[in-house]
């Protein structure tokens, strides 16, 4: 039943932030199936390690000394994850265990004492158990409630290697089992409820990130149904002082539902991005931009020999909106434009440098037609093709990957498939096989979904951690 607690801990539960979901994580049925497959693999490996590696110390139970306890048969890998009716848990079916041991007891007779010893086997076949809990949300944390437990053992037994006694003992054990399992479940529920509740409560509610900003991610909603699970978070980025940013000009639109064709999905409100920009690029922050390098990206060598700098101060923090068909970005700044021959053009509040970028998010290739509007002393509007930059970057990764892996890849236009490929090549190919991903945008939010199966390297990595933790 420890896997129920581990599965619960995989859900974040932190802090006090905004009152609406600005970030959602979702597991779909194909993802749930992959979790089950990984659990079964790990449990089989752990079962093997218990049989081969685990040694048990001598134990005294009601003056009976138990020694040489060895697990000879253990199979608890038939595990299913429960995700339904806002409940989360695990179910084990048709499990079995068999162990051998040596028992001895000191018997006091009239004038002397003698020790009686014997070897025996104990077994339990047809074990079926379930532990699940409804998960609620309180003060930004998940918490377990209405925990349920069931346990049945269809074939318990003890082999004392004395046939005449075995039958009687096993009859007694079978008769006692229906009365014994409810007490076992009661103990499991008490232990699990306290452990899971404590685990959720001790998770941090507000995280400082490298003394640069604070991440507030309180849980706001949770639901599970038909092997789906969705957790919603009221996430926001705050300054290190933990003071919430100004909400003026920001919006929080309802997050759209993610699609069902991938294992897992994330959706993020543009509100979260804007709290990050107001935290990291607040009004009054000074900066320097080498305009020559930026312009050379679009106009090749036309500006490479001309030094152009912008020494500025933020007048209005950058703001980013995801609209129905476009991504919108805007920022305003004041400062000094330093041109060739050290020519300086002051940019004041009366005529600030205002940049507005409009990029369609539903076209192929991506960012083919990006509109940039520049306001200030030298206003202009230009439409540029940013897909060439994406092509160049994906081409560099492809070339590097081909060089080391001995594979040739076709460099396509800037598409979501290209981004999936380079992310996999650079970061994930060692850990996930058959990786695929889809990126998208809907009104007010960015969405990303992914699928992939853990590689042998990943499984061995997890197994190594389990060995260190338990053996």
Protein architecture, described:
With about 475 residues, the protein is α+β, with helices and mostly antiparallel strands. It has helices at about 1-10, 30-55, 165-200, 270-280, 290-300, 385-405, 415-430, 455-470, and strands spanning about 25, 60, 65-75, 80-85, 85-110, 115-140, 140-160, 205-210, 215, 220-225, 230-235, 235-240, 265-270, 285-290, 310-320, 325-340, 345, 355-360, 370-375, 380-385, 430-440, 445-455. Strands 14, 15, 16, 17, 18, 19 and 20 form a seven-stranded antiparallel beta sheet that branches. A six-stranded antiparallel beta sheet has the order 10-11-1-13-22-21. Strands 2, 3, 4, 5, 6 and 7 form a six-stranded antiparallel beta sheet that branches. α1 runs parallel beside α3 (about 165-200) and α6 packs parallel to α7. The protein is elongated, with a radius of gyration of 31 Å.
Identify the notable features of this structure and list them briefly.
single chain; 471 residues; alpha+beta; 7-stranded antiparallel sheet; 6-stranded antiparallel sheet; 8 helices; elongated; disordered N terminus
């Amino acid at each position: 039943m420890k896997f129920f607690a581990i599965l619960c801990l995989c859900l974040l539960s932190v802090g006090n932030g905004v009152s609406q979901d600005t970030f959602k994580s979702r597991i779909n049925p194909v993802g749930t199936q992959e979790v089950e497959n990984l659990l079964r693999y790990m449990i089989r490996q752990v079962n093997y390690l218990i049989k081969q590696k685990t040694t048990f110390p001598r134990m005294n139970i009601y003056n009976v000394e138990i020694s040489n306890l060895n697990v000879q048969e253990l199979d608890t890998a038939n595990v299913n994850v429960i995700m339904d009716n806002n409940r989360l848990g695990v179910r084990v079916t048709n499990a079995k265990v068999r162990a051998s041991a040596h028992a001895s007891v000191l018997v006091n007779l009239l004038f002397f004492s003698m020790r009686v010893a014997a070897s025996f086997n104990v077994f339990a076949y047809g074990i079926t158990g379930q532990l699940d809990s409804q998960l609620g949300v309180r003060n930004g944390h998940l918490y377990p409630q209405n925990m349920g437990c069931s346990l049945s053992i269809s074939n318990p037994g003890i082999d004392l290697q004395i046939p005449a006694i075995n039958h009687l003992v096993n009859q007694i054990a079978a008769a006692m089992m229906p009365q014994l399992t409810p007490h076992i479940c009661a103990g499991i529920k008490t232990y699990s409820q306290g452990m899971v509740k404590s685990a959720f409560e001790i998770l941090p509610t507000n995280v400082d990130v490298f003394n640069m900003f604070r991440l507030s991610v309180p849980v706001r909603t949770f639901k599970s149904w038909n092997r789906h699970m969705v957790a919603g978070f009221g996430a926001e980025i705050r300054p290190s002082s933990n003071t919430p940013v100004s909400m003026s000009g920001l919006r929080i639109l309802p997050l759209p539902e993610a699609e069902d064709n991938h294992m897992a999905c994330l959706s993020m409100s543009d509100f979260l991005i804007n709290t990050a920009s107001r935290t990291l690029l607040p009004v009054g922050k000074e900066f320097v931009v080498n305009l020559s390098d930026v312009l050379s990206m679009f106009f090749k060598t036309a500006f490479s020999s001309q030094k152009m700098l912008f020494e500025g101060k933020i007048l209005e923090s950058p703001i980013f909106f995801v609209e129905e068909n476009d991504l919108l970005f805007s920022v305003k700044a004041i400062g000094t434009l330093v041109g060739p021959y050290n020519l300086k053009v002051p940019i004041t509040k009366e005529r600030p440098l205002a940049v507005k970028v409009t990029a369609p998010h539903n076209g192929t290739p991506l960012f083919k037609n990006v509109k940039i509007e520049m306001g200030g002393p030298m206003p202009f509007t230009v439409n540029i093709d940013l897909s060439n930059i994406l092509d160049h970057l994906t081409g560099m990764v492809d070339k590097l990957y081909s060089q080391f892996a001995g594979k040739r890849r076709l460099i396509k236009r800037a598409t979501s498939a290209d981004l999936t490929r380079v992310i996999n090549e650079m970061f994930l190919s060692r850990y996930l096989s058959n990786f695929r991903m889809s990126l998208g945008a809907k009104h007010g939010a960015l969405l990303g979904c992914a699928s992939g199966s853990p590689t042998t390297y990943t499984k061995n990595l997890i197994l190594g951690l389990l060995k260190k933790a338990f053996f």
